[in-house]
Amino acid sequence: MNKKVGIGLCSLLAITTITTGCGKEAKLYDNTTAVSLKGAKITATDYYNEIKTSNISKLVDIIDHQLFDEKYPSNDEEDKSVKEQINQIKETYGSNETMYLSAIQQYFGVSSEDELEEMLRLEYKRNEAVEDYIKDALSDKEIENYYNENIIGDIKASHILIKPDVDSDATDEEKQKAENKAKKEAEKIIKKLKDGEDFAKLAKEYSDDTSTAKDGGNLGYFNTDDMDENFMDAVKKLNNNEYTKEPVKTQYGYHIILKVDQKDKPKLKEVKGDIKTTLANAKLDGNSTLHYQTLIDIREKNNIKWQDDKLEKQYNELMDQLLESASSSTTN
Predict the structure, then answer these.
(1) Can you tell me whether residue 91 is helix, strand or coil?
(2) Contact 40, 32 (CB under 8 A)
(3) Tell me, what's the pLDDT at 74?
(4) CB-count burial class (<10 Å; 0-12, 13-18, 19+) for 307
(5) Whole-Å CA distances, 13 to 31, 61, 108, 312
(6) What is the pLDDT of residue 190?
(7) 159 near 219, Cβ under 8 Å?
(8) In which residue ranges of the chain is pLDDT below 70?
(9) d(CA 295, CA 245)
(10) Is 70 left (phi over 0), alpha (psi -120 to 50) or beta?
(11) Of 27, 38, 185, 270, which is most buried, counting CB atoms within 10 Å of its CB?
């Protein structure tokens, strides 16, 4: 937890909880004057009550600092992520310091770069906590099913790529003609392979992938996340030393693929951590409210108890707003 925040809060809010007919309410032990001016004074209780109703999000930040700061200490990855985000914001507003500070106030609710950094660090820790919580909730069956259906040994392959020759400002008709021409050229190359011509030689002569053509189209070893989905679907179906009999279309153009080798599938224990990360991210991507709901669940699991009914009401309203906003952002 930020010690300055913690100490400041404790000195200001030396509070006790009383129960009235209207419910629980936290009260200051010492209702001293916080600020005085001619003919008036503002007490610590006045100030505390204002904080209660107008700044519940700051209290949530303090709660989450307590939950996550020790469990997820700052590291190089966090430093890098926060630095990159700040730099991106700065790049958007150039060297204009006034615009930069105005922007972070408007969009992030902070008045300085130090406050922005603290906010981003807390968000980083929240993301770590959410991912870990979802990973821990995964069933063995979910993990095994993903392993059986998606995990494969590394594949080695070569390819010949034929790109449609078309400008970015071409008409739809021009683009379609270029697509048809590229596909026909790929089909002619497949015919040459059927006639016994050498794959590597054809790759050197025809492939538009200049980075691999000089090496006979050799792509080396790769796995699922390294390649276009259509490319992977096609290469997985091939036997070693077999090539695709139809051109394979991807975002890059038309491919003729030769499968060279495939390694043994790794054991489940070797890839279990990666599978859990993949499944957790998929769940978060598929459910816009899961991030906030998980944070709510984590706080409840840590026995959060409200000693002030007004604070609890403000918290619940804030959580409802966040869930609603996240849900509506995917439907709009």
Answers:
(1) helix
(2) no
(3) 97
(4) middle
(5) 10, 16, 26, 17
(6) 98
(7) yes
(8) 1-23, 26-31, 94, 330-332
(9) 51
(10) alpha
(11) 185
The burial of 75, by beta-carbon neighbours within 10 Å (0-12 exposed, 13-18 middle, 19 or more buried), is given as exposed
Q: Quick one: which of 133, 113, 119 has its CA closest to 62?
A: 119
| CB neighbourhood size of 106 (10 A) | 8
**Residue (of 87, 227, 53, 250) closest to 162 by Cα position:** 250
CA distance linking residue 30 with residue 187, whole number of Å:
86
Distance CA 96, CA 254 (A): 47
| pLDDT at res. 29 | 64
Residues 6+ apart with CB under 8 A from 253: 161, 162, 163, 164, 182, 208
**Alpha-carbon span 312 to 315, nearest angstrom:** 5
Q: Answer yes or no: are the C-beta atoms of 194 and 246 closer than 8 Å.
A: no
Q: Which residues of 142-173 are buried (b: 16+ CB within 10 A; e: fewer)?
A: ebeebbeeebbebbbbbbbbbebebeeeeeee
Task: Report the C-alpha gap between 160 and 218 in whole angstroms.
Answer: 9
| C-alpha closest to that of 256 among 184, 328, 309, 323 | 184
Measured CA to CA, the distance from residue 233 to residue 255 in angstroms comes to 13
Residues in the chain: 332
DSSP states of 7-63: HHHHHH--EEEEEETTEEEEEES---EEEEETTEEEEHHHHHHHHHHH-HHHHHHHH
Residue 37, both tokens: 């001016």
